[in-house]
Amino acid sequence: MSRIEGYGRIDRSRHVTVTVDGAAYTGHPGDSLASVLLAHDARPANTGVKLGRPRGIGASWTEDPTGLVQVEEPFPEPMLLATTLEATDGLVARGVNGQGRLSEIPDLARYDRLHTHGDVLVIGAGPAGLVAARTAARRGEDVVLVDDRPTAGGTLTGTETIDGRPSLEVVDEIVAELRASPNVTHLQRTTAFGHYDDGFVLALERRTSHTDDGGLARRSRQRVHRIRAGRIVVAAGAVERPIVLEDNDRPGIMLAASARDFLHRYGVLAGREVVVFTSDDAAYAAAVDLHDAGATVQVLDARPTAPAVWSRRCADRGIAVTANTHVHGTRGPDRITAALVGPERREVPCDLLLTSGGWNPTAHLFSHVGGRLAYDPSLGAFRPAAPRPGVEVIGAADGTFGLADILRRAGGAGGADDAPHADDEPRDPTAVLWRTEGDPARQFVDIQRDATVADIARAVGAGMTSVEHVKRYTTIGTAHDQGKTSGVIASGITAELLGLPVEDLGTTTFRPPYTPVAFAALAGRERGDLFDPVRTTPIHDWHVAAGAEFEDVGQWKRAGHYPHPGENMTDAVLRECAAVRTSVGIMDASTLGKIDVRGPDAAVLLDRLYTNMMSSLKVGRVRYGVMCGNDGMVFDDGTVLRLADDRFLVTTTTGNAAAVLDWMEEWLQTEWPELRVRLTSVTEQWSIVAVAGPRSRDVVGAVFADLDVSNGTFGFMTWQDTALDGVPVRVARISFSGELAFEVSVSAWYAAAVWARLLEAGRAHGITPYGTETMHVLRAEKGYPIIGQDTDGTVSPHDLGMAWAVSKKKPDFVGRRSFSRAQNQDPRRKQLVSLLPTDAATKLPEGSQIVRFADDGRLPAPPVPMLGHVTSSYHSAALDRPFALALVKGGRERIGEVVGVPVAGELVAALIGETVLVDPEGARRDG
Predict the structure, then answer these.
(1) Quick one: which of 469, 427, 471 has its CA closest to 449?
(2) Burial of 476 (0-12, 13-18, 19+ CB in 10 A)
(3) Are 473 and 480 within 8 A, CB to CB?
(4) What is the pLDDT of residues 104-159, one digit of tens each?
(5) Which residues have CB under 8 Å from 711's CB, separation 6+?
């Protein structure tokens, strides 16, 4: 065991047991999975993704490029970092080799989101962030403070002194003040992973990752906070930069600050025989602390001279410090056993090699909003350059690394005169050292991707001169860690190979998310049936009881057909079609979009949006209308009922209801705000029951005895109000089947009762419920198009044969000018026609291409010229044969022509005809 008494913030009075790769390990609350494994001198069973070389744990937090595990219990989740995964009792995980697998067990945890607003958002609860948050809170600002660690304090270890006291005591004091402040929202275990324009930040809170059951039985496991703040303060710290050397991927090689973090946070000594290789002062603190905890330590400094203050501290402890020395490689079978030092590569025994080549400010969130980075040669790092409006970067994230400077600037930035104080520490400049000499094929830049210096050299040799191109060529920086330790090093090595200053080459672009975010967290509660809300009509339960097979239309569950025992869909649809054509059928049409349009200028608005005239429609009448986009292509269609001089009811297709309302509101609010019109969706308030067929008049008349349904009184495309047992009902003569038909509209509360009354009245006539599949066949037999099926955004009303629905009197409407474009008047445009397979037996697959027919039944030589495609295809009970609708180039001029449709390797002959195949005179519809 490498657990050191007197160190760490874990609760040693309690124990947890975790299982990794089949072996059980004991830890304590507050441990990470990585610290438990290191305490037992173990590691996940990981290997490199390409080369299969063993991998260990290389850092203590999100910058670790290697320690990936797959969690099996208590929640299934692939590819999590052992360093960020909190150890809980019963946790079961296994190492993964850079590639996880999706769990076959459903994730039963809850996820949600929360909207949060504040005057200032502080990202990071290290010393800079804590001081900035406290300063803002004392000014009375609403503060949101987020930090990704379980506890505040950032990289403070407790060995530092602030205001003459241990640093963590001061941290606890500030945290207590913030928690007590009513204007502060303080969120630990919360990672700000995306920064967007106008002060918008997305942050992921891990709410139950520290509990034994993952929170499955209580609250949401993770929460996405959608934070909007007037000012963003980025205090996200910095990431230590490794030094690339030969065989630097072996287990037992770690960042120096991470080894220090494991010691002070978890009480874990990551090695007993330690070599520290550094070009920066910070690694000396790790050397001193590990020595004081019982390790044997020696320091190798790449700089010409070692820092005087740290050299004295090391000398006082007997720690050997050697300057102007490089580590060139490592030895060891499955973990490091020796470092190869100096040009002679002498072996220095060790079980832990710590590297530190300086620090890279965590500028990701600053860059997400277009913040520019500039190279600072004194740091060997890129730091924020020109400020961004509303964004302030402080502390190590801005390249300030001395604790005294961090505290002074964090407090001073807010105008505070009571900022905590720390003594200044002398700091020698960092020496920029991207790599030492060695075999480029064994010098790993991105350890997770097994990408080496040799890979970068190949990219440069292939002509890559942009670091963005090198990234994609080599995959460096594309793993879970997104290049936190490898990105800037790749820029430095690429610049060396190109002979350019690294400041001229720059870095790759930082993009959200900063750390991986589970899809489940992004989905929140919109999962399963809530992923796309399921909408059902008030008559849905009846359809279920009747054995309906449903289809999804928009978000609605619509009855597709009602199969009897032994019937397949084709049989059921043919039976339902025959019933409507010969007697009477009933359909739930409640899902149609319905928009109430009212106001003095309602008629003006509709005239501008529809291709035909609506202002001339009389009260009590109904008119079919078509809407077009600016390009003159059909956008939607439906009926318009005029309810009063200043009020209309517009119906839309089921799937387009929301889009049509949005379209109407966009024009009303942005282009014609002077119009006095109000638009209200009433789709769910009104249910519609369609009764269609030769006996429909008998059924409707029997239910609504006070309503004169005779043809002379109640003509086609009119509506009348009535009542049923005191409940208001509106009945309209509208037909989408081509038969005599009525649409009965009633408040959704009474829909099921009205449905039942109509069924009872139609029992004597053999009334048959029919669904959308039957509706599709009936309307296609009449040549009625379905928008989105017989159109594809490139079809105009004229292409559909609906020139009659385009007004020649109105001066203008949306899309009118596009009709005059030469392209829109081209007679070779695709036009809607019918297709009748000449064998009267083949049902043409929808989407099939249409070509010229050849007598020999063979396709022309490629490239085969396409004439169009099949849009709708059905078996017809009325025609006793299959038929189809299609969009064909110059289709109306081709009526009577035989074309070919490739089906299952054969060319099927089909005759082009008029779109109306049943009752072309409309006698049945008109009653």
Answers:
(1) 471
(2) buried
(3) no
(4) 888 888 999 999 999 999 999 999 999 999 999 999 999 999 999 999 999 999 99
(5) 926, 927
Q: How many CB atoms lie within 10 A of CB 413?
A: 17
Burial of 396 by CB count in 10 Å (0-12 exposed, 13-18 middle, 19+ buried)? buried
Return the sign of the alpha-carbon dihedral for residues 266, 270, 274, 277.
negative
Q: What pLDDT is attached to residue 412?
A: 62
Query: pLDDT per residue over 41-61, tens digit each?
Result: 999 998 988 899 999 999 999
Q: What does the block give as tokens for 323?
A: 């300057």
Q: Give CA–CA dist 112/921, Å, rounded.
A: 58
On the CB side of 132, how many CA atoms lie within 13 Å of its CA?
28
Residue 489 has pLDDT above 90, yes or no: yes
Neighbours of 102 (CB within 10 A): 9
Closest C-alpha to 920, from 862, 864, 878:
878
Q: How many CB atoms lie within 10 A of CB 870?
A: 21
CB 907 within 8 A of CB 901: yes
Given strand 346-349, what is the order of strands in its sheet?
A: 327-331, 338-341, 346-349
DSSP SS3 for 822: coil
- pTM of the prediction? 0.78
The string of pLDDT tens digits covering residues 173-189 is 999 999 999 999 999 99
Q: Is the pLDDT of residue 213 over 90?
A: no
Q: 468 φ, ψ to 5°? A: -65, -40
Helices marked H in 518-568 — which ranges? 519-523, 540-545
Candidates 585, 587, 569; CA nearest to 577 is 585
Cα dihedral 694, 695, 700, 705 sign: positive
DSSP secondary structure string for all residues of 200-250: EEEEEEESSTTSTTTTTTSS-SEEEEEEEEEEEEE---EEEPP-B-BTTTS
Q: What is the CB neighbour count within 10 angstroms for residue 582? A: 16
Map out the domains of the chain with their CATH numbers: 16-105+242-356 (3.50.50.60), 111-239+361-413 (3.50.50.60), 435-505 (1.10.10.1100), 540-591+685-778 (3.30.1360.120), 593-681 (3.30.70.1400), 827-924 (2.40.30.110)
Which distant-in-sequence residues (6+ apart) come within 8 Å of 662 by Cβ? none
Is 170 exposed, middle or buried, given 0-12, 13-18 or 19+ CB atoms closer than 10 A? Answer: buried
Asked if 234 and 123 touch (Cβ cutoff 8 Å), the reply is yes
Give CA–CA dist 249/49, Å, rounded.
12
604 vs 673: CA distance, rounded Å: 12
* Terminal CA-CA length for the chain: 92
CB 32 within 8 A of CB 18: no
**CB-hemisphere CA count at 13 Å for 814?**
24
3-state helix, strand, coil in the chain (%, to 5): 25, 30, 45
- Write out the DSSP string of 766-811: T-EE--HHHHHHHHHHTT---TTTT--SS--TTTTT-GGGS-SS-S
